[in-house]
Amino acid sequence: MLTRMLRRLLPLAALLALVGCAPADDDTPTPPAATGLTSCSKDQLTTKTAGKLTIGTDDPAYGPWFKDNKPENGEGFESAVAYAVADRLGYAQADVTWVRVPFNTAVAPGPKAFDFDINQFSITDERKKAVDFSGPYYLVRQTVIALKSSKIAGAASVSALQSAKLGAQVGTTSYKAITDLVKPSGQPQVYNTNDDAKKALQNGQIDGLVVDLPTAFYMTAAELEDAVIVGQLPQVGVPEQFGLVLDKGSSLTGCVTQAVDQLRSSGELTRLEQQWLAQVAGARELT
């Protein structure tokens, strides 16, 4: 898995620049509504291929979002979400076709080779000018990482972090998570960039670093030696949101959003997040 990720350092670094820590805010964004729907039954949907659902993602498709670079196996968080959406729309797994589409191509203006694409796309106003988004299927969680030698490497609760020296990038949701959730006994360390904070962690100046989960996966796999994900913190502030990407003005947007909303309200998205991000990937929740 690490080898596959290392092959993709530059594209992944670009991705993290797009999906980096969201600034703290007080206004919770409203997901797009599934309005104007006539029917979301399979026989009423206009897809790239009649009777089939074409789903896009990048190549390689890396963990924990996918497994073994095989999105068709249904394993990994985003593969499982994609098949759950397909099922809500009436498509069996055998009716789903996967295509590989580079990240930047998927969100660029112009016709798409897919019905929807799933690839950790942050929902932004700028991207909405070129593509449609479904409602959010994942709210990015803030995560604590530490060196394996750190006193908090095995922490299992938020309270176990309160005596630790923690750091985060200034003005981010990560910093807000430290001050509002962890409430450490000492003053949190603030850095201009995550690179500065990462160096402080490497040099032993802090016990743990708080970043968003995608950044935590990247740092511990590709940038930091002997580092571990301690765990995910409860939500705080306005989280960054991942959405499915569709062609601008797609007739499927409303129905796909409805499917995602149903998966959220039924608790299925939470279950899949627990299964693939918390249990399999080791990013457990800190209580």
TrEMBL record:
Provide the alphabetized UniProt keywords: Signal
Q: Which residues form the signal peptide?
A: 1-24
Report the Pfam families cross-referenced here: SBP_bac_3
The Solute-binding protein family 3/N-terminal domain sits at 52-280
Q: Which Gene Ontology CC terms are recorded?
A: membrane
All copies of the Ionotropic glutamate receptor C-terminal domain together span 52-279
Asked if the Swiss-Prot or TrEMBL record annotates the protein with the keyword Signal, the reply is yes
Is-annotated flag, keyword tRNA-binding? no
Source superkingdom: Bacteria
PANTHER family, sorted? AMINO-ACID-BINDING PROTEIN YXEM-RELATED (PTHR35936:SF19), MEMBRANE-BOUND LYTIC MUREIN TRANSGLYCOSYLASE F (PTHR35936)
Q: What name appears for this protein in its UniProt entry? A: Amino acid ABC transporter substrate-binding protein
Its ancestry begins with: Bacteria, Bacillati, Actinomycetota, Actinomycetes, Micromonosporales
